[in-house]
Amino acid sequence: MIENFKEKFRQDCEVLLLEGIHFFSGKEFTQNELSLILDYLLENGKTVIFTSLKLPQDLPQIDSSLRSRLSYGLIIR
User: Fold this and answer.
1) What angle separates helix 2-12 from helix 28-43, to the nearest 10 degrees?
2) 57 near 26, Cβ under 8 Å?
3) Which of 4, 16, 19, 41 could disulfide-link to 46, CB 3.0 to 4.6 Å?
4) How far is CA 12 from CA 26, 39, 45, 66, 68, in A?
5) What pTM was estimated for this model as a whole?
6) Per residue in 4-45, pLDDT tens?
C-alpha cells in the first residue's frame, strides 16, 4: 500500500504542498521517506512548498540532510 502511495507521487505529482513540517520533528522514518520523495521531485523539476512555525535551522530533531533540503530554496517569514 505504501509503495502505491509513493509511486503516485512519482507519476502524478507536479506540486507538493506540505503544511506543518515542524510536526516531523523526531519522526525518523517519516523524515527518511520525505527525503526520498523530495529528491525525486526536485530532480524532476517539480515544485515543493512547505510551511512551518519555525525556520528549518530552528526545527528540533530534524535530520541534517532534510534540513538542508528544506533550506535549499526561497524562505519567507
Assistant:
1) 30
2) no
3) 41
4) 29, 15, 13, 23, 25
5) 0.80
6) 888 887 788 899 999 999 999 999 999 998 898 888 888 999
What residues form DSSP beta bridges with 48? Answer: 16
- Residue 18 has φ and ψ, to the nearest 5°, of -125, 115
The Cα 35–Cα 62 span in angstroms is 11
Q: What is the dihedral of CA 57, 7, 49, 44, to 10 degrees?
A: 90
Q: How far is CA 48 from CA 15, 26, 72, in A?
A: 6, 22, 11
The three three-digit cell numbers of residue 6, written as one number: 509513493
